[in-house]
Amino acid sequence: MRVLGIDPGLTRCGIGIVDSTGPQKLVMAGVGVIRTDPDASLEFRLLELEKEISIWIAKFKPDVIAIERVFFQLNVRTAMATGQAAGVALLLAAKNGIPVAMHTPSEVKAAVTGSGRADKKQVAQMIKRLLKLKEIPKPVDSTDALALAICHHWRGVGNARVAAAKKKAIKKR
Which residues lie below 8 Å from residue 136, measured CB to CB, with a gap of 6+? Predict the structure, then answer.
């Protein structure tokens, strides 16, 4: 199974592809960060995200897209930007008939490190170890995207039948 993890953000949107080659065998197929110009107007920033995420979908053909669910943020402006970026990813998933899984930050941390309270450094170290990487991907948004993909591999596999049914239903439309 191939999972595209997306850590939504308007200025920096982390994106990572993780393949499962067997039980507990994960391989990174791609990682990056989509950046938009903070001085550009919102609609053009969203358009840039749409263009770049579309390229990743076309290139890697994921089976599932795992997106971070915005659970709570004190800064309303940041929460809105994150939600808008997530909306672009959700729309593209629907347009391409790809099932979506939403995971909260604490679910991702717990799946990757064993603790829902792990800090970003602990998550990054586990990503390096789990994917057998020589170094931690930078910036942290890319590491978070890989963590989302890994979380889905480990927690979303039980939903494989549901995801397949959703994909089949979307294609019938």
Answer: 124, 125, 127, 128, 143
For the four alpha carbons of 87, 48, 13 and 42, in that order, the dihedral sign comes to negative
For the whole model, what pTM was predicted?
Answer: 0.89
Catalytic site residue 107?
Answer: no
Q: Is 68 a catalytic residue?
A: yes
Per-residue pLDDT of the chain (173 residues; tens, 9 = 90+): 999 999 999 999 999 999 998 778 999 999 999 999 999 999 999 999 999 999 999 999 999 999 999 766 667 878 888 999 999 999 999 999 999 999 999 999 999 999 999 999 999 999 999 999 999 999 999 999 999 999 999 887 544 444 554 555 455 55
Q: Is 63 annotated as catalytic?
A: no
Choosing from 19, 52, 141, 144, the catalytic residue is 141
Residue whose tokens read 């990743």: 56
